[in-house]
Amino acid sequence: MIVTGGGSGIGRCAAHELASLGAHVAIVGRNPEKLETVRIEIEEDGGSVSTHVSDIRDEETVAATIATIIKDHGRIDGLVNNAGGQYRAAIKDITTKGFEAVVRSNLTGGFIVMREVYNQWMAEHGGSIVNMIADIWHGWPHFSHSAAARGGMFTLTESAATEFAASGVRVNSVAPGSIASSGLDTYDAKDTEFIQKGVSPHIPLQRFGTESEVSSAIVFLLSPGASFITGSCVRVDGGAPNARRGWWELQPAENNTPFNGFHRASEPAILAAAHQGEQR
Ligand SMILES: CCCCCCCCC/C=C/C(=O)SCCNC(=O)CCNC(=O)[C@H](O)C(C)(C)COP(=O)(O)OP(=O)(O)OC[C@H]1O[C@@H](n2cnc3c(N)ncnc32)[C@H](O)[C@@H]1OP(=O)(O)O
Ligand SMILES: NC(=O)C1=CN([C@@H]2O[C@H](COP(=O)(O)OP(=O)(O)OC[C@H]3O[C@@H](n4cnc5c(N)ncnc54)[C@H](OP(=O)(O)O)[C@@H]3O)[C@@H](O)[C@H]2O)C=CC1
């Protein structure tokens, strides 16, 4: 099994889970120290793991990494195409270089890894691929570069599922919402305050998800239990995209914080503004 971004967060958790189920896990990332830490953890637990330093955006290194994994371990049954990330910025402030860095990290890089795994192994032997996306439905303000890339990965997954089906390769995506992973450490203090106070009221299950709640969806999709599932997307988001009309009317007043920017439709100020709009 290959897990990109296996040196931290959701990828680390999935690597542990897969190793505990008996798989050899090849973890891929840019930072060798992070990979080494996870290697030691998994080996201490009795698992089998190898580390591979590679930037998923670098075609040559990725091709060589996949070849090494096949040479050393004989097969690739599954790919967790998980590496990625982004920074928070408004569209007006995103430079072309920044936009391209995020698209390359979350779409092109995942494409390169998936293509190499397919061409070098799965086209002949079958397998299962899980592509990580995000809760991008209806857009993702201040993360628009990532939403654009993940939207691409969503449809790339659907296309690959049909192209690869005859080779016995299933391809699905997992779309995490707000997950309390190590990835959140990459945001600054102001964002963290927003994350803590402003996000949970938007989530019907009223909390962040955990790394293991995403990992279990990944492992299910990789497993024979999902043998008739391909081209699908499993949302792991506590119902966040469903918190639309009706949701706010069900909420206690204290959930209407200045952070979340939502207000009950019945609030006097909102009614007055709506009335003014009618008069115009
Ligand atoms: C409120 C929260 C609710 C949050 C609500 C809670 C839900 C969160 C949901 C999602 C959570 C996650 O995904 S958690 C996962 C988080 N993990 C990660 O993001 C890790 C991986 N990310 C990255 O490596 C970086 O973000 C990424 C930009 C993609 C790639 O980095 P690189 O090192 O390749 O790129 P760089 O060379 O640094 O940058 C290239 C250009 O990108 C731009 N750039 C890069 N970082 C920048 C930054 N912080 N601010 C501005 N611009 C930046 C600049 O233009 C850079 O050019 P110069 O100006 O010339 O330098
Ligand atoms: N946490 C959340 O709420 C959500 C997370 N996601 C996505 O889930 C995935 C896992 O995130 P999470 O575990 O939370 O965060 P992390 O930041 O902990 O994980 C991201 C991993 O990807 C690796 N990575 C990033 N860019 C590259 C690259 N170019 N080449 C190789 N490896 C790379 C990083 O390792 P290294 O630095 O060593 O390269 C890191 O281990 C990411 O794609 C993330 O965007 C999506 C929605 C929500």
TrEMBL record:
It is an enzyme of class 1 (oxidoreductase). Gene3D superfamilies: NAD(P)-binding Rossmann-like Domain. It is found in: Peroxisome. It catalyses: (2E)-dodecenoyl-CoA + NADPH + H(+) = dodecanoyl-CoA + NADP(+); a (2E)-enoyl-CoA + NADPH + H(+) = a 2,3-saturated acyl-CoA + NADP(+); (2E)-octenoyl-CoA + NADPH + H(+) = octanoyl-CoA + NADP(+); (2E)-decenoyl-CoA + NADPH + H(+) = decanoyl-CoA + NADP(+). Transmembrane segments: none annotated. Pathway: Lipid metabolism. Pfam families: adh_short_C2 (PF13561). Keywords: Fatty acid biosynthesis, Fatty acid metabolism, Lipid biosynthesis, Lipid metabolism, NADP, Oxidoreductase, Peroxisome, Phosphoprotein. Its EC number is 1.3.1.38. Participates in chain elongation of fatty acids. Catalyzes the reduction of trans-2-enoyl-CoAs of varying chain lengths from 6:1 to 16:1, having maximum activity with 10:1 CoA. Has no 2,4-dienoyl-CoA reductase activity. This is Peroxisomal trans-2-enoyl-CoA reductase. It comes from Citricoccus parietis.
